[in-house]
Amino acid sequence: MTRNPEQAPRATRPADHKTHPTKHRVHMDQEIYLIGLNHRTASVEVRERFALTDCTVLEQGVVPTGDGISEVVILSTCNRVEIMAVGNGPGVPARVLDCWAAARGQKHRDLEPFVYVHKGIDAVRHLFSVASSLDSMVVGEPQILGQLKDAYRKAVGRNATRVVLNRLLHKAFSVAKRVRTETAVASSAVSISYAAVELAKRIFGEMSQYKAMLVGAGEMAELAATHLLNSGIREIMVANRTFERGLQLARQFKGEAVLFQDLFVRLAEADIIISSTGAHEPIIRARDIKDVLKRRKNRPMFFIDIAVPRDIDPDVNNLDNVYLYDIDDLKEVVEENMAQRREEAAKARAIVEEEAETFARWLKSLDLQPTIVDLLRRSERIAQDELARTMKRIGPVDDATREALQAMLCAIVKKVNHEPITFLKRRFHEEEAGTRYIDITRRMFNLDCDDVPEDAHSDRKHHA
Amino acid sequence: MSSLELLSIAIIMLYVLGTVCIAVGLLARRDRLKRLSQWLTLAGFALHTVMLGLSMQGQTWQILEKAYYFRMLSWSLLLIYFFVWWRLRLEFLGLTASPVALVFYVSSFMLADVQSKLPPAMSGLFFGLHIGTLFLSFSLMTMACGAGMLFLYMDRKLKHKTPLSGFDRDLPALSAFDKVNHLAVMAGFPLFTLGMVSGFVWARIAWGKVLSWDPKEIISLVVWCMFAVLFHQRLALGWRGRKTAVMAIWIFAVCVFSLLGVNFLMTTHHSFNPQ
Question: In this predicted complex, what is the ipTM?
Answer without folding.
Answer: 0.83
